[in-house]
Amino acid sequence: MRSISWWSCFILALLHALPPLTLCKQEPPPLPVLPIPSASQLKWHRREFIMFFHFGMNTFTDSEWGTGHESPSLFNPTAFNVNQWVDMAAENNFTLVILTAKHHDGFCLWPSQYTDHSVRRSPWKGGGGDVVEEFIEATRRRGIDAGLYLSPWDRHEKSYGLEVEYNEFYLAQLRELLGRYGSISEIWFDGAKGKNATNMTYYFQDWFSTVKQLQGSINIFSDAGPDVRWVGDESGTAGATCWSPINRTSLKIGDANLENYLNTGDQRGTDWVPPECDVSIRPGWFWHKDENPKSLDQLLNIYYNSVGRNCVLLLNVPPNTSGLISSTDIQRLKEFRRAINTIFSINLPSTVKASSQKGGKDGGFSANNILINDKWSYWAPDDKRGGQHWIELGGGHDWMTFNVIRIQEPIWLGQRIKRYKVYVNGKILAIGTTVGHKRLHRLKKAVQAQKVRITILDSRGLPLVSAAGLHFDPFWHSLQGNQTQTPN
């Protein structure tokens, strides 16, 4: 038998002298608080900005709602270039653009087989053009997603008002759009209709089911979802309290009495149907020669009241009669994008601490998670400890000058926070209710502080925070007369 060497004996003795190896056990994440978003809804939330293009017969008749009796010969953009539209959107970081394939006048921007009221009968490209096709191809070239709007109200179609016949007609056009052009990320339905319009029952559930059959990962927008809901106004303003959950059984498309409910959502809602804020860069939805784009101040205010209140901003930029986006609109969009980048490119806090953290120091839910650029990390407090939960943002040895507070939740685990306060040196700086994907507070005056504490007063289950920040908005600051406040 081979003898054990002195070296082997030394190694064995050393191993016996060492303490037993302890493996680090990862703390499991908290259970979600239902409802939670689907994968396509979560992608939609993270876009924050999407763009609408209202273009069609109304562009050439200088109207907002056409009659349906316009001659197709009026549609003739002389310098049509949809690549210009999409390039402009992509260069300003919009990742989804939506086209009005058919508005209320019934004129179709594609050669539909089911109507004579389309580009096929227009002089544009000798009747051989297809705006929808060129639009989809342009989005693919730039690597952004496409959406379509097909108005349920059709003032041209003779079958409108005949329940079965019109619903069959509408579904046929829906199948053309969703079956002919490849992947579509969002489809837009609304209940807009004139006061004297013919009474008509839309088979929305049939339409929704068909949409999901044709496009499995698409988001459906309407007053009642099922994936994205209208915010209840066209000013780009969500409620100061704004829940993504809502009860779809309480909703009816086109019911104006539900606008307040749509605006705020429902903390007891059983369905995840987040709000989309639609607003035009101009006073009208279609291009009009005598209109100008909103000012930068107006657009920033819309941003804070939409993206800053748990919404996605759907900003309409209408092409003109030549088939191009006007230079004034392009310039304003560039200013808007630069302003957003200027405000949020720098996050002032360099340190963060919290009341507690789930799993302790190595549990994976550290307060430091809220300052790192990782879309899946978050802070979670210890659910076994009582008292209020809080996080404290610090500037180290430096004073932070800010006028914008940002708080975000990991909404893939549900929307939780119901009420919170923000303190500087024990004084209340801001009070809020819901957070959701993103909550922004724009202060009336710039504040100087070394530490800012966010205390969560109430939540659905354990409160979670995925990101937080303090930022300086020089555009708002200048409007307020360069006022700076230093709390005592």
From TrEMBL:
GO biological process: fucose metabolic process; glycoside catabolic process
Residue spans crossing the bilayer: none
Keyword Signal: yes
InterPro entries: Galactose-bd-like_sf, GH, Glyco_hydro_29, Glyco_hydro_29_N
Pfam families attached to this UniProt entry: Alpha_L_fucos
Molecular function GO terms recorded: alpha-L-fucosidase activity
Entry similarity comment: Belongs to the glycosyl hydrolase 29 family.
Protein name: alpha-L-fucosidase
Gene transcribed to yield this protein: FUC1
